[in-house]
Design a protein that fits this description.
- The structure holds 3 protein chains of 3 kinds.
- By secondary structure, chain A is of the alpha/beta class.
- Helix content of chain A is about 50%, strand content about 10%.
- The radius of gyration of chain A is 21 Å and the shape is globular.
- The mean pLDDT of chain A is about 90.
- Helices cover about 35% and strands about 20% of the residues of chain C.
- Chain C is globular, with a radius of gyration of 22 Å.
- The chains are: A alpha/beta, B alpha+beta, C alpha+beta.
- Chains in contact: A-B, B-C.
Chain lengths: ~425, ~475, ~450
């Protein structure tokens, strides 16, 4: 088997900054449940070293360690005192492992769909129709979605979100700003309400919103599964559409998409170049441009709160708590702004969630493929939420939303902060 | 006994799900947080005292070395199986068994993470005092085996002062109780010699800990200095005045820079040293004590003093201190942490010598130290891929050890001898001293199966 | 085995004629449980001790180290006794590092002499140990027997104070462990092993210890109760509060009487620290006592304060008890156990005084002179007391008793599962059985 380099030079240097102090073990949600060294970020950094130096062969077991004991949540990166980017190393290993051992055909098909707008829309429509025609509790009980309770997975949008909005929405009067809206797959196919709330709020703030129709998946879930080729396609497509000088910001409503566009694109392109792939300078510049423009919607709102219209209190109190999505708080270091947005809504009684930035345990496909570990992690989150006696759990990630709402008491609503904001504008809660 | 037979037997004793024996696992359990690496022959993760006992008895009957291990963050190589054998990983034995608040005791399994325990106790308004910087990841068992300290040990003592009893598995597999919930059980203080024994005498499977009510008031001060010497002299002066704070910690400029980059704790990066002073106890008289301390600081030319206004500010100061070791990993890829201890009064002198040693061997050295108890941690920074540098690092470390001994101190304050400092034992102990310690080892572990090759050097028997 | 003359001449060679006692009339004073030694020897330096023990080891002599002999009555009856090793000439303060708050001192000096020296140097410091036998207890004896007293509540005991220790092993090896630093994990913690080893693993010659600055202020608060459970509720409240008394004792009427206090049950608090904290605690605990149902409280300051605690420590001498029992158990059972002990003693018609360290789970029972005649009842009582302590995770030691009583009871209480290790330890350290052989737990 010919030796393929796992990492670009910069990425590989991370290995040698790991001093094995083990402090990452205190923050890894998987290690907490599994208690094995391979489940620690340190362990995986050391495995990366052994693989890179040729002291260990890539085997099924090693592959499993990188896939089944890691959510790529980034908690280790955020807390490593030496600044080791474990996530870059781990995704490098996943890539070569996927090349050697392949990716589950169902997953591969899913990625192909996500990467192609047209294919995805069609499938979504088909899926929704099939669920309506043939779905029902009996069939749902037979489907296996790992840790997810099938019957509590939200139905697909009647129409993909992007089909329900024009490509340009102008505000009333003079525009304060012009933004591109990257809505991502979750909003597009499952959480249309979030998309509508984002648009509604931005327009009321006097912002002109551009929603390119040909946008696709940000590529990150595909990338994390090791399918670099397909994910690079998504990256290049996204850069073409979104890396523009002439907008004030590129807005996202999803923590993972945000992390991808802000942190991962430039790094990944550079890494590929160091591994000998052809990457043009202007692609890297485009990635950097996009990273500079990228703003989570709550950050944008918080920065321009003076543009918000007056909100009416209707006398009712709503007890709200907030879950920090890993890719937002750890990846992008954003934690204050979503809270500011929530606290600014009249009638909201904000209560801090214990362990607010603990991972929800979803990890995209992780919860499907590694149900036992995922369930244990999610249970801790759900118990904490229950303890706050909140009526609403707010979070800025549809992925977290999906996971948490799937296991949380159905009487507790799970919403994106912009949805609460939208309701406040319209005078209802 | 060949490896496969051994593995088969262990599977039979504790179940397949508790045994690891793949190439990947041997590599994963070959290290701890030191520079030493050596693979075990098998790894077991027992879930009960009974399982530990069975494994140890099996090892004993077949003369196989055994090392107990928690999170594996040992800094002196104590968790590394340098003679092969079975690594007994106790992370799965992580239950708090008995919260006996009425009697000020808690009984825990050895794999409980120290900070997790403290968080549970805090909910009830109680404290387990030892607070090593690694507490969020280290286990009670590991802390006890190394007799971990922490900033608060100046006032409250180290781990062995707070572990009053244990259920242990002896090297022949027997399970016995040592110490207990009550003080002063008759007999030799076996608990006393078990602490800091680095896993060479017995394996703890349950620990009885002393807890106490939370202090009424805490006052944390950050004092910024333009010279390390002035900071060190402040420490001596405070204690000389008859004030024993709960902690007195110092960091030098190189460390401050690394910490700021990693944690943004607000430490000024042009300060020569910062001193963290904390008082705790009754609120009465605390203001007056604080005034006295601040006066002493001013007498020693302190540049700036910040008193933490609330818990959040206090936490920020401590986060900077507790993350210091790892933070220096940003400056150079690796560090070797020294652990020498000197009488408090000789700290400034010792530090001056450490600086000289750094210059002599052309190595950057960042210093973090428990100024109140004289335990210094010079962090020698290097890149382990550079073999020349690595040699100089070991030479510098040995010289630092010698300096500490010359100052009337010792070679390890809290990280243990392990393998790493074995060659330093002859600096502080005579052959007769070591012979006496070997008698203790012989009483517990005549076959030398428990963590062999650590702590006790292979000197010839005393004349 | 050499005959007595050979023995004496050899001893004289080592320590000098003046330092050997051979005269049978004088030897009686050094008897242990009525067994007199063949000689008493007083070495003047560590080298001499080393030579003495090496000799004893070679000649298989039975040796008992001794300070002022306050604790000689504790332990098993010696099967044989050749030599009493007096440590009284090994009595220097070898280093007092004032700014470092550490002290190195030899074994033969009394704790009291040390305290006086410390108090009078610089700003004043003290070694926070307050064991019984105020005037006579020597450092070596106190450490070897892990002596402690009421102030253990706040200041802990020897194992939390000592930084290092020097000793001579049974084979004559001179060894040193620990040092001057507060933290030290180099090698095994042999210092802790030697503390409380009852002179059976080696002869302690010198210790190095932490000191504390003398407290700025102090006072003692006395609260009297008619009801033991109410006294217990007070001590429980204080135990779980943020308050920091240095001592918290609960005692019965007999003990209180010996201290010149009138109370059915007396609770005594020692408060030391900065002036504001002492004042606050005197007031607050006084309030708590009233609310718990105490009678009028009393506050002792100055000389009265010091004198009270000296008498508490020396209760053994004041009470004139020749049977002293020490029970240990979990902290919260103090009142319950004291109450049971009291009832059983009364039921057997045996006069007893009881003092408990309410924050430590230690209870000392003094069987008063007129109770000693009822030998069998006393033995019975000891059995009951021991079972009661064992029921609460503890044990009972007979600290002092006439020989014929000791023969009939287990002076070290119930055996424990780790005795096997202790036995092997003794065998390794003292294979010949030179030091205090057979006198420790399990007949080691």
């Amino acid at each position: 088997m010919e030796k393929k380099e796992l990492f670009g030079e910069n990425t590989r240097e991370n290995i040698y900054h790991c001093i094995k102090c083990g402090l990452c073990m205190a923050h890894c949600p998987v290690y907490k449940e599994v208690l094995l060294e391979e489940a620690t970020p340190r362990g995986k950094v050391q495995l990366s070293r052994y693989l890179s130096e040729g002291n260990l062969e890539l085997s099924e077991e090693v592959k499993d360690a990188f896939f089944s004991t890691c959510l790529l949540c980034g908690s280790c990166v955020a807390n490593c005192p030496s600044g080791v980017h474990g996530d870059h190393l781990f995704s490098g290993v996943r890539w070569r492992a996927a090349e050697r051992y392949g990716i589950d055909w169902k997953k591969k098909m899913m990625f192909q769909l996500l990467a192609s707008k047209w294919k995805m829309s069609t499938s979504a429509w088909f899926g929704r129709w099939a669920r309506k025609m043939f779905g029902g509790t009996w069939i749902e009980s037979k489907l296996n979605a790992g840790a997810l309770n099938v019957e509590r997975i939200p139905p697909m949008n009647d129409h993909p979100f992007s089909a329900t909005v024009p490509d340009v929405i102008k505000p009333v009067g003079k525009a304060n700003a012009k933004v591109l809206y990257f809505h991502g797959c979750a909003t597009n196919y499952l959480y249309g309400a979030i998309g509508r709330a984002v648009v509604d709020v931005l327009v009321k703030m006097g912002v002109e919103v551009l929603i390119p129709k040909d946008q696709t998946c940000c590529g990150l879930p595909i990338f994390m599964s090791g399918d670099r080729e397909t994910s690079v396609q998504c990256i290049r497509d996204t850069l073409k559409i979104f890396a523009r000088e002439d907008v004030d910001a590129v807005i996202v409503d999803c923590a993972t998409c945000g992390a991808a566009l802000k942190n991962e694109y430039a790094h990944l392109l550079r890494d590929l170049r160091q591994l000998g792939e052809e990457v043009k300078d202007e692609e890297i510049r485009a990635a950097e441009l996009l990273a500079g423009k990228l703003k989570d919607v709550t950050v944008f709102i918080d920065e321009h709160k003076d543009w918000l219209p007056k909100m009416m209190a209707d006398g009712r109190k709503l007890r709200v708590t907030y879950h920090d999505p890993c890719h937002l708080v750890k990846g992008q270091k954003i934690s204050a702004q979503p809270r500011n947005v929530l606290k600014s809504i009249p009638g909201v009684e904000y209560v801090e969630l214990p362990g607010a930035n603990d991972c929800c345990g979803g990890g995209g496909s992780f919860q499907v493929e590694h149900a036992e570990t995922s369930r244990k992690i999610t249970k801790r989150k759900v118990d904490n939420i229950r303890e706050t006696k909140a009526q609403v759990l707010a979070t800025c990630c549809p992925g977290c939303n999906l996971t948490i709402s799937n296991h949380l008491d159905p009487t507790i609503a799970v919403l994106h902060p912009v949805e609460l904001l939208q309701k406040a504008f319209n005078g209802a809660q | 006994m060949d490896k496969d037979t051994m593995i088969g037997e262990l599977v039979r004793l504790v179940g397949r799900e508790n045994v690891l024996s793949s190439a990947m696992h041997f590599k994963l359990y070959e290290y701890d947080a030191s520079l030493i690496r050596s693979k075990p022959d098998c790894i077991v993760l027992p879930t009960s005292t009974e399982q530990v006992s069975k494994v140890v008895k099996f090892a004993h009957d077949n003369k196989i070395p055994v090392i107990a291990r928690g999170s594996g963050t040992n800094l002196s190589g104590g968790s590394v199986t340098i003679q092969g054998g079975i690594a007994v990983v106790l992370t799965r034995m992580n239950q708090i068994l008995d919260m006996d608040i009425e009697n000020l005791r808690v009984v825990v399994q050895p794999g409980v993470i120290t900070l997790d325990l403290k968080n549970v106790l805090a909910k009830h308004g109680y404290l387990y005092q030892p607070d090593p910087a690694s507490e969020k990841v280290t286990t009670i068992g590991g802390n006890f085996g190394e007799n971990a300290g922490g900033p608060h040990c100046l006032k409250y003592g180290v781990t062995s002062n707070h572990v009053l009893g244990a259920e242990v598995v002896l090297p022949d597999g027997q399970v016995v109780q040592m110490g207990g919930k009550a003080l002063d059980n008759p007999g030799y203080d076996l608990m006393g010699v078990l602490g800091a024994s680095e896993g060479t005498l017995a394996i703890v499977t349950q620990a009885v800990l002393r807890i106490m009510p939370k202090a009424e008031a805490v006052k944390t001060m950050l004092c910024i200095y333009n010279s390390i010497e002035e900071g060190g002299n402040t420490v001596t002066a405070i204690i000389g005045e008859g004030i024993i704070p709960a902690t007195l910690e110092m960091m030098d400029n190189l460390t401050i820079k690394a910490v700021e980059e990693a944690y943004h704790a607000g430490f000024p990066t042009d300060a020569a040293a910062i001193l963290i002073i904390e008082l705790d106890g009754l609120k009465d008289g605390m203001e007056r004590l604080t005034e006295r301390i601040l006066a002493i600081c001013k007498q020693h030319n302190v540049r700036e003093i910040r008193v933490a206004k609330d818990q959040a500010e206090r936490d920020k100061i401590w986060a900077g201190r507790k993350g210091a070791f790892g933070a220096v990993g940003r400056l150079r890829p690796n560090y070797l942490v020294n652990d020498g201890t000197v009488p408090r009064t000789r700290l400034p002198e010792t530090l001056a010598k450490v600086v000289e040693i750094g210059k002599k061997y052309r190595l950057p050295i960042a210093n973090v130290f428990h100024a109140g108890d004289g335990n210094l941690h010079p962090l020698i920074l290097f890149d382990e891929r550079d073999t020349d540098e690595l040699e100089r690092v070991h030479a510098a470390a040995t010289e630092i050890m010698k300096v500490c001994v010359d100052m009337g101190g010792t070679i390890s304050g809290e990280h243990g001898i392990g393998l790493e400092k074995l060659h330093g034992m002859s600096l502080i102990f005579s052959p007769k001293d070591i012979a006496a310690m070997k008698k203790v080892k012989a009483a517990f572990d005549p076959l030398n199966l428990l963590n062999p090759g650590k702590l006790l050097p292979e000197t010839e028997k005393a004349a | 085995m050499s005959n007595t003359n050979q023995l004496a001449s050899h001893l004289k060679e080592i320590v000098g004629e003046a330092n050997v006692i051979q005269d049978p009339d004088q030897l009686g004073a050094y008897a242990v449980d009525g067994l007199a030694p063949r000689a008493v020897v007083s070495p003047g330096n560590v080298e001499e001790i080393s030579k003495l023990l090496a000799y004893a080891n070679a000649e298989k002599l039975a040796v008992v180290p001794r300070g002022n002999g306050t604790k000689m009555a504790t332990g098993g009856i010696p099967r044989k006794l050749d030599l009493v090793l007096s440590m009284l000439r090994i009595n220097r303060i070898t280093e007092h590092d004032v700014p470092n708050l550490s002290l190195s001192v030899e074994a033969g000096i009394t704790l009291e002499a040390v305290q006086q020296k410390l108090a009078g140097t610089g700003k004043g410091s003290f070694l926070p140990l307050d064991p019984p036998y105020v005037d006579k207890g020597t450092i070596g004896g106190i450490i070897a027997t892990n002596g402690s007293g009421p102030r253990r509540y706040l200041y802990s005991s020897a194992r939390d104070l000592l930084l290092g220790l020097k000793a001579v092993l049974p084979n004559g090896d001179v060894v040193a462990f620990g040092g001057k630093t507060v933290k030290n994990v180099s090698g095994y913690d042999m210092t802790k092993l030697m503390i409380g080893s009852w002179g059976a693993l080696g002869v302690i010659t010198e210790i190095t210890t932490k000191l504390l600055p003398l407290p700025e202020a102090s006072a003692t608060l006395l609260a009297s109760f008619d009801d033991l459970s109410k006294a217990g509720s007070l001590t429980k409240k204080v135990l779980h509060s943020v308050l920091l008394p240095s001592a918290m004792e609960v005692m019965d009427a007999n003990a209180a009487g010996k201290l010149g206090q009138k109370a059915r049950y007396l609770v005594a608090f020692s408060l030391e620290g900065v002036a504001e904290a002492v004042d606050r605690q005197v007031a607050e605990i006084g309030e708590m006592a009233k609310r718990a149902g105490a009678g009028d409280g009393k506050v002792l300051t100055g000389a009265d304060d010091g004198a009270f605690w000296r008498r508490v420590r020396d209760m053994a001498l004041t009470a004139g008890a020749s049977v002293i029992l020490r029970s240990n158990f979990v902290i919260s059972k103090q009142a319950e156990i004291l109450g049971n002990y009291e009832r059983w003693a009364q039921a057997s018609g045996i006069g007893c005084a009881f003092i408990g360290q309410a924050g430590n789970g230690i209870l000392t029972s003094y069987i008063l002179e007129n109770g000693v005649e009822k030998r069998d009842s006393v033995i019975d009582l000891i059995g009951k007391f021991t079972a009661e302590a064992a029921k609460h995770s503890g044990n009972l030691i007979v600290e002092a008793a006439p020989r014929d009583l000791k023969e009939k009871v287990s002076v070290w209480g119930r055996p424990r599962s780790d005795y096997g290790v202790m036995r092997r330890l003794k065998e390794e350290m003292d294979p010949v059985g030179v030091l205090n052989s057979g006198r420790f737990v399990g007949g080691i």
